[in-house]
Amino acid sequence: MSITERPKFEVLIPCWKKYYITIHFLLMLLPDLQSTFSNENTEVSISSYIFLSYTATTLIVLSCLLDGRPTWICCVEFGRCIIFLIALTFVQRNGIFRDLQQFVFYISALMWGLLALEYFFKCHRG
What we know:
Blueprint: H1 15-37, H2 46-67, H3 73-88, H4 96-124
Helix pairs in contact: 1-2, 2-3, 3-4
């Protein structure tokens, strides 16, 4: 029986993408920790399901970014940032954390929007 050596799976991730993933992972965790340790009502509501689906989507998108594929993930990440910004307008919290979230997601939406446009034009060019 001969065993052939397979190439190692090693994705080279740019530094900016590592920082981006780390920041967005922390921004995803902090509101979850705040709601977990707050003394609010613990009933499961529609907002709980929405937040759970947002968390799952974030984890999927961030893992795709870590994997380095697929190339269309820039469109999904742009959509996630826009949806979060829209949802943030309905949240009644004020303070520096909300402002920080808003700033990070505006910059992220701008960056991924430009990358999504580049992907769109590259696909439809021929």
